[in-house]
Design a protein that fits this description.
Structural class: mainly alpha
Radius of gyration: 20 Å
Mean pLDDT: 87
Order of helices and strands: HHHHHHHHHH
Number of helices: 10
Largest sheet: none
Shape: globular
Strand content: under 5%
């Protein structure tokens, strides 16, 4: 079943495409200006990011408009790639190989299959209960005990963040919200837009007025001023977008505030992991943006909270 392109979705995608078109023109004009090597490098990075956004928006639009199955397949692939990036940067041993095989080729598809058949009960506990118990049980059979706790915690945490948390984003498509039938795709778009916009606005506010770092040893670029300005701006945008949600304006503002704060927590946590592993990005799959997990860090923490708040307060 495909998603109908109603007026709100048309305006949404039209606005995003118009913004990207303007950004592309501005970046090209900046590239034509002469400047230092640092300036040229900055502009080149900007153009790479804009080209990546064109690709990401196109893929996301096709997945959403293609219907629930297409969206679930897209997010399953995203979870797989994010988990691969996470595991690659963290310590594992030969004795974990079979555990990792089941993690990638059983847990990931099964989690999304449960969404496809709308089995919420097992979906909600598959990884935090059964996966939590299976991972150490399977790994201990290898007989390798060196760094056992760290290795197991790594796989369990990767499963939780990259698969369990991320899968709550497309799970929004399954919610039965009175008076909102057939429109859940807009709720997924709303989540992604507000969270990603908050990231961008926190960066902009931080560059403009940022003075005091939130956690200097973790991410010096994240400032208190940037956090407050970005969260407030994204919350305002989220409130203004209430017509595309089942929320009232004040409810939309409250939801936006929660998910922007959770998005910040996710980004900061992932920054700590990268600093611990001594890397700038989780990967390089997206030109100008790093790895898949670098784009998902905010969504990882925001998606499950947004899903459960919506399910608890707005479903039948």
């Amino acid at each position: 079943m495909t998603v109908a392109l109603d007026r709100q979705l048309a305006w949404f995608f039209g606005g995003v495409l118009a913004f990207l078109a303007v950004a592309t023109v501005v970046a090209r004009l900046l590239a034509l200006r002469t400047g230092s090597e640092a300036w040229q490098a900055t502009v080149a990075n900007l153009e790479a990011r804009i080209r990546a956004w064109w690709v990401m928006v196109t893929v996301f639009a096709v997945a959403i408009l293609g219907g629930r199955t297409t969206a679930l397949v897209l997010f399953a692939v995203i979870s797989f790639l994010a988990l691969r990036e996470f595991i690659t940067l963290t310590p594992t041993r030969r004795g974990d190989h079979r555990t990792l095989f089941y993690t990638f080729f059983a847990a990931v598809p099964l989690q999304y299959y449960l969404l496809a058949i709308d089995w919420y009960g097992l979906f909600s506990i598959l990884i935090p209960v059964y996966g939590f118990l299976f991972v150490p049980t399977r790994s201990v059979l290898s007989g390798e005990t060196d760094d056992f706790l760290a290795r197991i915690a790594t796989i369990q945490w990767g499963l939780m963040v990259c698969v369990y948390c991320v899968s709550h984003a497309p799970a929004l498509l399954l919610l039965d919200i009175p008076g909102y039938e057939g429109q859940n795709a807009k709720l997924l778009l709303y989540l992604v837009l507000v969270v990603q916009l908050s990231d961008v606005l926190q960066y902009v506010w931080g560059k403009l007025v940022g003075r005091h770092a939130v956690a200097p040893t973790v991410s010096p670029s994240k400032t208190i001023e940037g956090l407050v300005g970005g969260v407030a701006s994204a919350t305002l945008v989220g409130a203004l977008l209430w017509p595309m949600t089942p929320f009232s304006p004040w409810q939309a503002a409250g939801m936006s505030l929660v998910i922007t704060l959770m998005g910040f927590a996710g980004g900061l946590t992932m920054s700590a992991i990268k600093r611990d592993r001594g890397v700038k990005d989780f990967g390089a799959i997206i030109a100008g943006h790093g790895g898949m997990l670098d784009r998902l860090d905010s969504v990882c923490f925001a998606a499950p909270i947004f899903f459960h708040l919506t399910r608890y307060f707005f479903t039948r």
